[in-house]
Amino acid sequence: MKRISSLLLTMPIILGSIATIPHTKVSAETISFNQETFTLETLNQQTDQAITNGNFEAHLNNLTAYLNGNVGAMNEENLKKKLADPVFAAALAQWQFISQTGAATMATFAKKNADHQKFLGWAMKNTDVMNTYLEGGSPTGKNPVNALEIWNTI
Question: Would you state the pLDDT for residue 150?
Answer without folding.
Answer: 75
